[in-house]
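QA checklist item 7 of 12: single-chain prediction sanity check.
[x] sequence parsed
[x] length recorded as 508
[x] structure emitted
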Amino acid sequence: MSSHGIKDRVAIIGMGCTPFREHWDKGTDDLMIDAAKETFASAGLDKEQIDAFWFGTAQSAMSGVPMAAALKLDNKPVSRVENFCATGSEALRQACYAVASGAYDTAMALGVEKVKDSGFQGLNAFPIPNDGTNRTLTAAAMFSLVLPAYAEKYGVDKDELRRTVARIASKNHHNGARNPRAMYRREMDVDAICKMAAVAGQLSVMDCAGVADGSAAAIVCRAEDAHKYTDKPLYVKALSFVAGNGSGEIILNESDVLEVFTVSGGGGAAGGDLTGTIINADKPVQVFAGHKCTQIPVGQQACDRLEEAMLPIETLSKKYIVGPPLIPNMQVKAQMVRIIATEDATALTYDPPQGGAPAMLAKAGDYAEIAATNKDFQIVSDKKILVSQYMQSQSAGGNIGDPAMALAVATEQYRSKYLIHAPLSYDTNFANVTAPMDAKVTMDGAPIPALTAIGGTGFGVARMAVPDNADGNHDFVGDKAFGVTIYGYGQYTSYWYPGGLDLEALPQ
């Protein structure tokens, strides 16, 4: 059995949403009507033009009749779905797949909950067949049991895990503060959340979702019909739905996207770091990694967004040469270097030696930083490593640009010819060429500057300005394999990337 995904087959053409808060003056019907009216108006359609409806609610209604009655849907199919906290998105998923299948031209998904009237402070536990003794566990209580179990199973410090959970809540409050229809519209940092009164276990009041009333809806149609209804359709790229068995594995279908992220206390530049995360897949996947607002080092002005495509482990090597960049005044700018282990007990050496640099990475995924170095050097390991290079922030030494990131290229993956692009929109562009000392390398047919030897490696580096031309394209050609990186600066911006590389699988 195969899955073909839903990418670009369905479009959202209308949406509506009530404020999420205490609605003492409204019932479930009122909330559904408010959300539906806004949605119909957004799409420029009326209910008679919708072919089918999906109704999501976990605790406020049974079957599809309440939605049909509230909206006065005559002779329309209404399907009620429930999937715990994913009930609203489950309704949207079902509507999208129904349209994608060709069964319907248009469909509407609507979710609603009216739980404040119960007087119960928190979502009550769902009833299950038993001996007649009702459970008294709330959702918060049940989820609180996960934290100590996770800490014990994976050897995570419970206080560290507590703050990690608080970062998630802090991110949610950061987003809520910017949403005029959110229940809580005030930011809260990690420390404040941790100090709040406990609800259950290590979970505090502000770790837990607010108990609110509200409704939201969306109308979808086939992608090819979207512009009949709106000039701003939202095309559905993926609607993943998986049920886990506790193994930690995640199944993705073709075109599905999994996003994993950490958050800082309040959405700032500092926060968790996913560096060293090892991803295993039984089929080829593409992995991108980065940070939305990087300061190098932390605390320096200003920050910049970093995003890079990660190299597969099979293409990594045990030997890299890293060289810092020039800045517009033609001085060498200090860089930060990260070294990441792919296996336990990875030994490291450097040529020339780098004082204070680590000699060992204990576990796979461990990483070390060499900060503020303006030296060219080679890194040699006894097991495969990933090496990344970072420009420092503007305030850290006279650079007009902001941080940029480039993955170092293993010497075994060097090539003898490159075609690169140096954007004309940047004020200045530069290239670093790393090549064997006896290599002959040209840029646009002219010899590059003389190489400066790097320790006893047999390699040297040349740094040069890349001149502007009509299209920003330049070729580098050598009689031996060499490496090239391209970088440039504008006011409060910069870039850095390898000019190319082989992606051959290398032996362990």
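[x] summary fact logged: DSSP finds seven helices and 25 strands in the chain.
[ ] second reviewer sign-off
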